[in-house]
Design brief:
The chain is α+β, with helices and mostly antiparallel strands and 108 residues long. The protein contains three helices and five strands, in the order H-H-E-E-E-E-E-H.
Length: 108
């Protein structure tokens, strides 16, 4: 992952150009990169939930695999690692923000 990001960063020897763009000749997109350890909600498919069960579960984003287009996440409720593709990322929120919100709502 580190090499992946370094190859898509400006380089001094290339006078600020990006290695990946020099090697491939194609423009680089950063849209697929997500903030590490941000809060994410994974969709639970119909087969794995009941009628009144929640449709998503909160997780923490750990990493992604470009070759398989899957995201690795830490499931908060079960405390285990899962892989998924159907995710909504809240990049501005972290686990600390979620814990603060839980404490604020439980004390009221």
């Amino acid at each position: 992952m580190v090499v992946y990001v370094i190859n898509r960063s400006p380089s001094v020897p290339l006078e600020g150009d990006i290695r990946q763009r020099v090697w491939t000749g194609k423009d680089i997109s950063y849209d697929h990169l997500k903030v590490f350890s941000c809060l994410a909600y994974v969709h639970i498919v119909n087969d794995r939930r009941g009628k009144l069960d929640p449709k998503n579960m909160p997780c923490i984003f750990l990493e992604y695999r470009k070759d398989e287009f899957r995201y690795r996440l830490w499931e908060l409720a079960e405390k285990k690692i899962i892989w998924s593709r159907d995710i909504v990322f809240l990049e501005e929120k972290t686990i600390a923000d979620r814990e603060t919100e839980k404490k604020g709502t439980s004390s009221k």
